[in-house]
Amino acid sequence: MQLFRFANPDFLYLLLLLPVLILLWIIRTAWRKRALQKLGNTSLVRQLMPEYSVTRPIVKFMFQLLALTSVIIILARPQFGSRLEEVKKQGVEVIIALDVSNSMLAEDIQPDRLTRAKQALSRLIDNLENDKIGLIVFAGDAYTQIPITTDYISAKMFLSTISPEMVPRQGTAIGAAIDLGMRSFTPGDGKSKAMIIITDGENHEDDPVAKAEEAAKTGIVIHTIGIGSSEGVPVPFSSRGKKDYLKDNEGNTVITKLDEDILKRIAVNGRGNYVRASSSNLGLDEIFGEIKQMKKQELESKMYTEYNDQFQIFALIAFVFLLTDFIVMDRKNRKLANIRLFKVKI
Questions:
Q1: In degrees, to the nearest 5, what angle opens at C-alpha 211 toward C-alphas 209 and 212?
Q2: Residue 264 contacts by C-beta under 8 Å, 6 or more apart in sequence?
Q3: Which residues, at least 6 apart from 16, have a Cβ–Cβ distance to it below 8 Å?
Q4: Is the pTM above the cut of 0.85?
Q5: How far is it, in rounded angstroms, from Cα 338 to Cα 138?
Q6: DSSP conformation letters of 70-114
Q7: Strand pairing partners for 146?
C-alpha cells in the first residue's frame, strides 16, 4: 500500500501567504486603475497606450503564484513509499537486563541509579547501527520490555517509560532475568549473544551465579554493571508530595548497598566482565567495546524502506512557471500583434 506524507509539514503554513498576496495584488491593481482614470477618459488613455494589456499581468501573476506554491511544496518535502524489503546486516545480539527495584531510586549515583542507567542506555542506543538489542526489566520478577529488535526508535520510546511501578513484586531476581534473557535470544547456534545486567546486586530471590554459568554453556556472555555505593544509602520515595525514606516493618530506614561480590562472580561464571558505575561513567561503553570484539553474525531482519522524496515533479512545475513568467511580458509586442495564424479571409 502506498503512503504519502510531508517530511516538513510546517512549511505548508507558508501557503497562507497566497491569499495575502492575492489581496495585495487586487489592491495594487485597483490603485493603478484609479490612477489611470485620473489621467482622463479611460478609452482615450488606452488608445495612447496601444501596448497596454489587461490580461497579461493577470496571467503573469497566476504563474508566479503557481511557482510559489510549488516551491512551498518542495520545502515541505512530499514523500511516497512504504514497501517491505529484506535486509541482511552483520552484528551481535545484546540484551540489557535493567534492575527496576525500589533500591534503584537511591541517590548515591546522581540523579538516581535508575535515571542514570536509562540516560546511559539511551546514548548507547543512539550509537547502535547493525546490532540487535532487547530490554528486560526485573525486580522480584523479570519481564520482557523490548523483544530483540533493530528498531532503535521504539527501543528508546519504551526505555523512557521504565519505572519501579511496572514490576508489581519487589525484590531483585537476577537469576530470573538471566533465565528470561536466555529464552529471548534468536534461536540457533553460532550466533554472537551477550547480556548486560545493570543492578545494585542485592539479590534476594535465586542463584544468579548458577544461571550465569548455565547461560555461558549455551554461548551467551554475561557482563555485569554494579551501580551504587558499597557504604549504603537510604531509599527515597514520595509520600503525599513530600520526600521520605523507605522503612522496614520495624520502622527502621532501609539501607541499600552495592553487592560487588555477587556481580563479579556472575561475570566470571558468565565469561564476561564486571564494571562499577559512577555518576560520570556508567561503564556501558567499556562493556560494549568488549561486545564489539565478538564475532559478527549475519542478522536477517525485515524493515520498512519508506517515504522516498518525490519533489522532482514540483521542481519541474516551478521551473516551467518561472520560465513562462520570464518570457511573457506585461505589454503587447507590436511585431507579434500582427501575426494571425488562424486569420480567415472573407
A1: 65
A2: 224, 274
A3: none
A4: no
A5: 89
A6: HHHHHHH-EEEE-EEEEEEEEE-EEEEEEE-SGGGG-SSSSS-HH
A7: 135
Task: Report whether 95 contacts 134 (CB < 8 A).
Answer: yes
pLDDT tens for 185-235 read 988 766 689 999 999 887 667 789 999 999 999 999 999 999 988 888 898
Element (H, E) at 226: strand 220-226
Q: Which three cell numbers mark 4?
A: 504519502
Length of the chain, in residues? 346
CA atoms within 13 A of residue 49's CA, in its CB half-sphere: 13
3-state secondary structure of 193: strand
What tens digit of pLDDT does each residue of 105-158 get? 998 888 899 999 999 999 989 888 888 899 999 998 999 999 998 889 889 998
pLDDT at 121 (0 to 100): 92
- Grid cell listed for 105: 531510586
Grid cell at residue 181: 534473557
Residue 179, phi then psi, degrees to nearest 5: -65, -45
- Tell me how far apart the alpha carbons of residues 272 and 304 are, in angstroms, rounded to a whole number: 35
Determine whether 312 is exposed, middle or buried from the number of CB atoms within 10 Å of its CB (0-12, 13-18, 19+): exposed
β-bridge pairing 274-276 and 220-226: parallel
Pairing of strands 233-234, 255-256: antiparallel
